[in-house]
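Q: My labmate handed me this sequence with no annotations at all. I'd like to see what the chain might look like in three dimensions before we decide whether it's worth expressing. Could you predict it?
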Amino acid sequence: MSDDASRSRLGRGLAALIGEAGDENSVPQAARTGQKRVPIEFIRPNPFNPRKAFRDEELDELAASIREKGIIQPLVVRPARGVDGAYEIIAGERRWRASQRAGLNEVPVVVVEVNDKEALELAIIENVQRADLNPLEEAMGYEQLVAQFDYPQHELAQAVGKSRSHVANTMRLLKLPESIKTYLNQGLLSAGHARALLALRAPDTVARRIVEQGLTVRDVERIAQKEAAGDSAPARKAAPDKDADTRAVEKALADVLGLAVSIGHGPRGGAVTIRYKTLEQLEALCRRLQR
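A: Here is what I predict for the chain of 291 residues:
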């Protein structure tokens, strides 16, 4: 079987095992086949799991639900190497951690036979489908698949159900300074903020402003646009100082029009420049000139 076919089958197989993304209360028919219960101490976390952060409040909420209803959707596991009867989690580590808090003695599992590469693929796909990863965890998971297992980006995008541009842009977040990565891990910046910061010369400075001043993604994009416009603008010669009469005329016109006015003149004439910020201002100026 080709790698493409294997990866396609892998994605479909995982979807059948874990059900709809984020749905903790449905058990797909495929997941019931071969299901059994395993003592909770015989289960180990997945070292390939890209998700590293598990918030206490989320685990406490899930633990409370598990105490009331139990684990409705089983964990997906594989046999642990070198330990008879032990299993390694492929999908469902959050449920396993919450089950320990809830005091469960055993949990329902579905056992699958996969290698290390497939274990990483499944862990990433499962977390991405459930939107359980922060942007950096998602980026590191993608990078690990590409670097460790020679996974082409377009095939990776197809496997996780994302566009190729999404995968590429997410992986670019790994190039950000460590201070910004810390903000991302703490949830102080969104993925949109981080992508906009990539276009800046000093992204860490603007990142601090986002945290301190609450800048939106659009605000950061405007800062990047202004920076780019400054880079592309041709160098201008310093304008000579204007005499008092010219400045007085500029002010008089500005007061009448409500817009910034600049006058430049020389021996052979000159020009009057009126600056506006919005189309509404331009339309109002046109109406004045047409009277």
